[in-house]
User: Fold this.
Amino acid sequence: MKGPYIGSAYYPEDWSEEELPRDIARMKNAGMNVARIGEFAWYKMEPEEGKFDFAWLHRIVDALREAEIAVVMGTPSACPPVWFVEKHPDALKMDANGQRSTHGGRRHCCSNHPAYRFYSLRIAEMLAREFGQDENVISWQIDNEIYSNMEIGCCCDLCVESFHHYLERKYGTVDALNRQWNLNLFSQAYASFDQVPAPGHAWHNPHLLLDWTLCHADDHIRFIHDQADVLRRYTDAPIGTDMMPFGGVDHRKMNEKLDVVQYNHYNTCENLWHFAFWSDYMRTLRDTPFWVTETSTCWNGSTSWTQGFKPEGFCRANSWLGVALGAEANLYWLWRTHWAGHELLHGSVLTPSGRPRHTFGEVQETAKGFAKAADFLNDTRVKSEVGIFYTSHNWNMFDTQPHWTAGCPWPELKNFSYLNAILNYFYQPILTAGLRPDVVDAYADLDKYRVLVSPLQLTIEENGLPERLEQWVRDGGTWIVGAMTDSRNAIGAHYTDRERGIVERLAGITQCYEIPDPDGLVKAVWADGTECDGKLWYEVFDCAADTEALVTYTAGHSDFVGRACVTSRKVGKGRIIVVGTFPGADTMARVLNIACAETGVVPYATEGLICVSPREGGGKSGLIAVEIGGKAGSVILDKSMRNILTGEEASGRVEVGPYEVCVWENL
Assistant:
């Protein structure tokens, strides 16, 4: 089978087998061609230790095959059965208080525990032996949403031991660790790696917190990769693991030994454009299209609602957006809301009684649209000339040094985070400008881009990025350097001989100091006298003779009045623009205009919040537009195109209705 795929997560273990024919008939009626099964069914597969039952699962896979519905098979390691927990209670996760988890829910075991690893690999192997050569199993999903951020993680002795080995590999000697972490401060110095504690009830050194997080993420990644190694002995089908929009675990590192990037999301009307950001990131991680393995047809929820009703058309736009931006599949969570147990209030394709929800027609419409546009979607790939940096390492650095906390008195900073700052101050203006960015990390090939944006990239000391960025600029690229970028080394410490790593030298600036200003006391203006709409944070620069001050300070403190806030300098064949504030919409629009004019990047002219996706490949080219703001807008087409979904030809200004999807192919 070829994509694009549309389907849902199906839990046949929840239902009697008499329901199967009816469920499959309804899937066909919905237009679905794939079902995702098995991910939580360990007890059903192995009800007693060493006694396996896959007959029921074969009946499911065979019935789906007969209906021409493919299968994504999940390994069930997220939900070990109770017999395992009773035999190995020490495999349960331990919090900082020494409290173990209990059976129930999912992801409650330690990824480092040898028994948990043994039984997880064994059930994966048994499953792969049964279905590895089944042609209807077109992909595998390992575990479910494994990540370590938003909590300290497991603090058991095994995890602490892993942490100590990690530190020894990274720093070599404890003296090097003491020196780099500045552990003479507060008498924190250690005589051996074994003395370094897990995070607990202390004002911990932020470098300890960062390395603990990175180590824990590596442990999870190893757990997933080991399962992938087992599966590959029995199957050639692509293998992935479904990830959520959190950066605690590095998506690239997780997927470097997998075959297909799998991603889950549950966005709302207000933040559907955030999903565009994550799609722009997911497609850069591998050369193959990614899969949206989970999204809701209507709302998210568990035993309570966490989202409300969404307007008509939202399901269609939400379903198309990932595919427009490079996905090969869109799968809903879930097919039928569970009739008892967990997540009774989660949205779905069908109600627990098997009745279609109000969005069923939009699912059918999406399936028909995918089929109509299949050749164009399969032959083309998203084209981008602009990259915006986002890295898991910087996510974790901000997570362990958050700059502002939820308890601060300034409303705009209560929800401050690395991700939110990127989205609000940098990514959204890029979308508004009609550009299609790739969201890239330190391992990206820079040569394909004309413009690169580094928002809040505290450290660029990853994968030789400083040297590569400098050469890329000298060869003709324009680098927009956002506030705080290149101000820390790889472990999050300040430089002691300069304020910025390479930026000051390249940009021809001297950073005098930085100013947190949530009270709005600082004022600055552009060279034409227009007030700069920067906010929250300012960096004050002195400029070299060949560096242009685009924005200068006019108020706040006499010591920085007249000095620069935004600068521009020609470097070799390229240019570096330093934006020393959190830019408002006007400031970022001006900076993007300068960069596009310098490099010849031509944005698409749009009105409204429309996600545009230029596509090329297989001798074809065109543009997909998805309205994601719930309000009518327009796109200007610079040539005659045909809308594959409607058959209509168009050129010039074309109206795009609320949540409308247009797939235009060049004539």
